[in-house]
Specification:
Length: about 70
C-alpha cells in the first residue's frame, strides 16, 4: 500500500516537506524524500532510493542551492 505523508508549513521561514514511500512488487521499496525550504537562501534537497530488481539498488542524491541574493 502506498504511503504518503505531507507536511507543508505555510510560514515563509519554514520548509515544505513531502515524504512518499510506495512499496513495489516482491518486497521492493521505492523511497522519495523531498525537503524544499521556501525561505530565500534556502536549499532544496531531493533524495531518491529506488531498488530496481531483487537485491539491486539504484540511488540518486541531488542537492540544489536556491539562494536568492
Amino acid at each position: 500500500m502506498p504511503t504518503v505523508v505531507g507536511i507543508a508549513p505555510e510560514a515563509s521561514e519554514r520548509a515544505a516537506t513531502v515524504v512518499g514511500i510506495p512499496p513495489e512488487a516482491s518486497g521492493g521499496v521505492a523511497t522519495a524524500v523531498g525537503i524544499a525550504p521556501e525561505a530565500s537562501g534556502g536549499i532544496a534537497t531531493a533524495v531518491g532510493i529506488a531498488p530496481e530488481a531483487s537485491g539491486g539498488t539504484a540511488t540518486a542524491v541531488g542537492i540544489v542551492s536556491e539562494a536568492f541574493r
